[in-house]
Amino acid sequence: MPDRKQPSFQAVVRDDFALVDQCIREQLHSDVALVSKIGQYIIQSGGKRLRPLLVLLTANACGYNARGHNGKNHIPLAAVIEFLHTATLLHDDVVDQSDLRRGRDTANALWGNAPSILVGDFLYSRAFQMMVGLDNMRLLNVLANATNVIAEGEVMQLMNINDSSVTEAQYMEVIRCKTAMLFEASTHTAAILSGQNKKTEQALCDYGNHLGMAFQLVDDLLDYGGDAEAMGKNLGDDLAEGKPTLPLIFTLSEGKPEQKELVRQAIEEGNGLDNMETIITAVRDCGALGYTAQRAQEQAQKAITSLSVLPESPYRSAMEELANFAVARTY
Fold first, then answer.
1. If you average pLDDT over residues 129-137, what whole number do you get?
2. Residue 100: burial class (beta carbons within 10 Å; 0-12, 13-18, 19+)
3. What DSSP designation does 194 have?
4. How far apart are the C-alpha atoms of 303 and 325, rounded to whole Å?
5. Residue 206 neighbours by CB under 8 Å, 6+ apart
6. Which of 121, 126, 143, 265 has its CA 20 to 30 A from that of 312?
């Protein structure tokens, strides 16, 4: 993928990010060589690292460092979040039979399904070992609940595959669980770590939730017209798997009869790639991409509004910038 200048919302916590990367490398160690090899491969494969970034930005926006809290627990917390996310990616790629992620071969394409699943399990268990080390029952509770909800969301999505009757409300619940929940857990745990009051804690939960929703909506939008090289994945992956994402759901509701029938067949038969260009034209012509972008923008604005509880700071500004980036990106 092409190199990009580090966005300012990442640069503001550059030093913390370096410490998170160091923590991740240390915690990936295993006496079982294949565990370390696959773990290092997937962690080093790039990605936006938005979830650990949210921990760092939120903690700093809440004054965690400035208040002289004991140690730098936001660093291992951010690493925990990244391990949880990476574990879900390893499992997702097996479930989806994906062979490309972030422009590189997936772990299951290189080593097979069984090692990928088992290393995903290792990352989950290592994350929980690190959570215990933080010695904070509220953090453990939030992350345990989030992990459970994410698993439920993945099962819900699996159940929806090849089902053309999925509604927008059902779709929104799936992405709330499978994607937005870890965004929310990132900001929620950082707020807890920083000792925020209930009002601020809830507002930061809301920020993470709305940001995660916006992010997933745009991801689903880009499956029909993003930059494949920049995204590092194949366009039309969701279409090929028969996933009823919002652009398709909207087309089924608002499209012309022939557009509806085309999309219905693509979802139910999983043959979307055979007619990809025609389907992309259909979802564009009926306004589905514009509608999805509008819904994402609404979520991003709600995220920004939630930040009003925080004092002005470079970190709050970075969180606002991140919300705008989530909907403006092309990868």
1. 94
2. middle
3. T
4. 12
5. 302, 303, 306
6. 143
Over range 280-294, report the average pLDDT: 93
pLDDT of 169 strictly over 70? yes
Q: Position 163: which residue type?
A: D
Query: By mean pLDDT, which of 55-59, 69-73, 85-89, 272-276 is the weakest?
Result: 69-73
Residue 151's nearest CA partner among 125, 182, 172 is 182
Residue 207's φ and ψ, nearest 5 degrees, are -60, -50
Alpha-carbon distance of 100 to 105, in angstroms, equals 5
Three-state DSSP at 101 gives strand
Cα Rg of the chain, angstroms: 20
User: Coil, strand, or helix at residue 105?
Assistant: strand
Distance CA 86, CA 47 (A): 10
CB distance 272 to 242 below 8 Å: yes
> Taking the domains of the chain in order of start, what are their residue ranges?
11-328
pTM of the model: 0.92
**Start-to-end CA span in the chain (Å):** 10
Would you state the pLDDT for residue 225? Answer: 72
Q: Which two tokens stand for residue 165?
A: 């009757």
Q: Which of 136, 119, 147 is nearest to 71 (CA)?
A: 136
Instruction: Fold for 11-328, please state it.
Output: Farnesyl Diphosphate Synthase (1.10.600)
Q: What angle do CA 301, 306, 309 make, to 5 degrees?
A: 145
86: tokens are 């990476």
**Are residues 22 and 52 in contact, defined by beta-carbon separation less than 8 angstroms?**
no
Residue identified by tokens 């499956």 is: 223
Cβ atoms of 99 and 233 within 8 Å: the answer is no
